[in-house]
Every structure is written in C-alpha cells, then in structure tokens.
Amino acid sequence: MYQFSASTACFYPDELLPAYRDNNSLPADLIAVSDNVFHEFTGAPPEGKQRGAGADGSPSWVDVPPPTKAQLSKQAGAEKERRRTKAEDVIVPLARAVKYGMASQDEKTRLERWEKYSVLLSRVNPGDAPDIEWPVMPEATRSDDL
C-alpha cells in the first residue's frame, strides 16, 4: 500500500513511513491509496496534465500551469543560443572562403544573408518572451546543413 500527500502530490510507500517520520519529512496530510491508484498516477500523465490532488485530497490529473515569465525567458535564451550557433556554423566557413578569395558569388550572397540574420538575432531580448518576433532564418542549403 501507499500513502498520498495532497500538499506534495507524492506517494509514500507504507514500509518507508518510519524512515520519513524519523527524518521529520512525513507530510501530515497522508491518505491511504490502493496499488491500482498508485500505478495509475505514477505512469505517464495525459497530454497537458500533471499529478496533483483533487478537492478530497486524492490523486488527480490537473492542468499543467502555464510557464512563468522567467521560464519563458530562459527558453527564449536557449532558443537564441541555438539559432546563434547555427548561424555561426554557417558563417565561419563562408567568411573564410571570402577572406581567401575562394568564395563563389552564391557563397558571398549566402554569407551576407546569414550575417544580416545574425545581427537581427543579436537584437532579440529573451526577456521579452513570449512576445518575441524571431528573425527569419535564411533558407539553408545542403552545404549549410553539413
């Protein structure tokens, strides 16, 4: 058997309750639940749901809360870095080809498009999430994806 705490939305196996008590880490709002309930609510949640507690304190699938402003900013920062890395991976060899006079006209044009994209990307403020207008990435060619 298991115990469920609405305050932590966690399960506690009966055989470990003494250890939780000894460590003063056992919630006061435990209710007994069956093995079936335990298995239902420790499996994968339905889309857009997470384990929580119902009004009666028993396990329930509840809506996943929307991300916070800080979480959105962090996600936007990671996305900006991913895009910046992709741009630099394309720009570096093209710039080198131009530097050594080895670039075709197509490579020069691609370099210009990617450098402009990189400048626009540098102006993106992740703190503005979720209201970010991401610059459009230049169309990648086969050689850009290598």
Automatic annotation (TrEMBL):
Residues 41-87 are annotated as: Disordered. It holds the Pfam family Caudo_TAP. Residues 77-87 have a biased composition (Basic and acidic residues). This is Caudovirales tail fibre assembly protein. It comes from Raoultella terrigena.
